Amino acid sequence: MEYLHEHCNPKIIHRDVKAANVLLDGNFEAVVGDFGLAKMMDIGRNTVTTALRGTMGHIAPEYIKTGRPSVKTDIFGYGVTLLEIVTGERAFAFYPEAGEIMLIDRVKLMMEEGQLEAIADRNLGAIYNLEELEKIIQIALLCTNMEPDHRPAMSEVVQMLEGELVPAERWEEWQLAELNRRQQYEMRQQCKPFSFSEESLNIQEAIELSTGR
Q1: What pLDDT digit, counting tens, does each position of 53-87 carry?
Q2: How far apart are CA 50 and CA 67, in angstroms?
């Protein structure tokens, strides 16, 4: 992804970053596959797609609203993919106690409640490093920031993945922005209790727009 975004000329936007499109080669190295929706990015043109492309749960909110793909929409999908790998769950699912909910929102709720270990894939048992788990989740949430300009570049994501910790100031900035976003939402809803299910990225609209065409 870093190569596609930062070392290709013109840049290439994959537009369908998800776990199912990450394949293993003969040496068990991960490679990005399925470039059927990929698009070259012409810096000199204002690229707007007439039909939304991608997979439900991986589509960035600004792409739903504007129809304009970018490297930042790919980074959003990458963040969701990280969460899928960590949790072993789908990006979008139905829960009896909460209804339809995005994996991103469910992870945010569990992080807020301090249920870090509950986020990890149950199939892992307890065989994982808790600090590494927290780091991956933090990176994933930075990548899925609702504000595209605040998402890290792929080169920054790689640096964080290879490093020991996510920069404290970066994580604190995300937490503050998330708190402000939630407060603004509650004010718009006339102080109704915050609902992850209701607030979850225009679910019905995304379902309609992401169906096969």
Answers
A1: 667 788 888 888 888 888 899 999 999 999 999 99
A2: 7
Take residue 16 and report the two structure tokens written for it. 């369908």
Contacts 24+ apart (CB under 8 A), 192-199: 196/98, 196/101, 196/102, 196/105, 196/106, 196/108, 196/109, 197/98, 197/99, 197/100, 197/101, 197/105, 199/105
All structural domains of the chain: 48-209 (1.10.510.10)
Catalytic residue among 16, 42, 74, 105: 16
φ/ψ (deg, to 5) at 83? -65, -40
Question: Tokens 């949790």 — which residue?
Answer: 87
Residue 16 a catalytic site member: yes
